[in-house]
Design brief:
Largest sheet: none
Strand content: under 5%
Structural class: mainly alpha
CATH class of the largest domain: Mainly Alpha
Number of domains: 4
Order of helices and strands: HHHHHHHHHHHHHHHHHHHHHHH
Radius of gyration: 28 Å
Helix content: 55-70%
Number of strands: 0
Number of helices: 23
Length: about 425
Amino acid sequence: MNLRHVPLLLAGALLLARSSVVSAEECIPCHREKTPAAVVQWEKSAHGKAGIGCEKCHGTDHDKMKRGEARVDMKACAPCHKKAFDSHRTSRHGMGLHSGWGCTRNMENRNQRECAFCHDKDSAEPLSSVQCARFLKQSTEMGEVGCNYCHSVESSCASCHTNHNTDLKIVRDPASCAKCHMGPDHPQWEMWQTSQHGTLYGTSGSSVAPDCQRCHMPQGSHDVSVGITMSSGGIPYPAEKAGPNRVEMVKICSQCHAPGFASRELSRGDAIQKQSMAIVKEAEKIVLDLDDRGLLDPMPENRPPHPLSGNKLVIDSQLLYEDTSHIERLLFKMKKYDYARTIKGAYHQNPAYTHWYGNAELKMDLVDIKAEASRLAKAGKGAAQADSSAPNEGEALRVLKRRLERGGITEAEYEAEKKKVLDQYLHGKQKP
């Protein structure tokens, strides 16, 4: 190599490096003009005052930033905020993203940027095996705005703390919880705000009544699952997990109430949960029976496939509200909205949400489901009568087979019921 070329090579390397590597000193002049609010917020923040520059969180690849590929996730915060990071990761917020997402790899016209939400950007290792059928049904835009503005709480501290502010006053305001914890399926914000707790808090402040953070983030913990005894879908945890959690919640309530009073209130919520689940199970049994008899309209095999289960009936947490039958849509409302409002209203001591917005709707859902089941059964009977070639015993055996295949009956129960059907058929044929 000619030594005369070395200065030119060094200069070229420096220019190339400066085109992609930036520091805070380089960011501020331009961003003070283009994103002035962000600069002001950073300057007033604890980060700005401590000299923690833009590159510490955003990295140094400016071209990547401009392409929207340099998202600041929790890994950037973890080295300095380890305690908060660790407690968050083990809490319900720590699974918030993956409870709302699903793998899009087999979908046509998928947006490949979505892979970064569920796969490690360095190793491509999957971060979760959780799927969400409802997310997979959405467009990219609806998934990003309508789903992940809330569910990104798993991987983004900014979901609660905002992007450049560090003032704890922001996250100590219960309104910071409201953007996600509201609406038809989990209106905890509205329940708390209109409960005795919320009313007292609004009139007299935190010295008299608790807010969301005091009960669910005690002593500033980022573990929002403290004291919770059931899944986000309202399924109680096993006793070995629920028991210790209940002890923790009674401790929290006992900051203001006698422990006995707190235990009784929570136990009443447990009873309401069991009563409400019994109504849901009755409705599920009706829908399953209709599917066994081929009476859903339309049947799963005659509509677009479920994104996870194909052309099979799904009534668990992956139940859809689109591309389904009317009675399944009623079941969705019952489980996702009215069951949730009933039990969450009870645990938040809100009588109107527990009864009128919850329990009353839950029971009227069952009325509607029974009426729709009756209509479908009558329509199916009429079709069977019109087709004189349809053998009753064949239909009965087919129903039994479907129940066996979905796990509704055991192999032994199937064999016993099949024998009864065949015996009745043979007995009937032997009549003069």
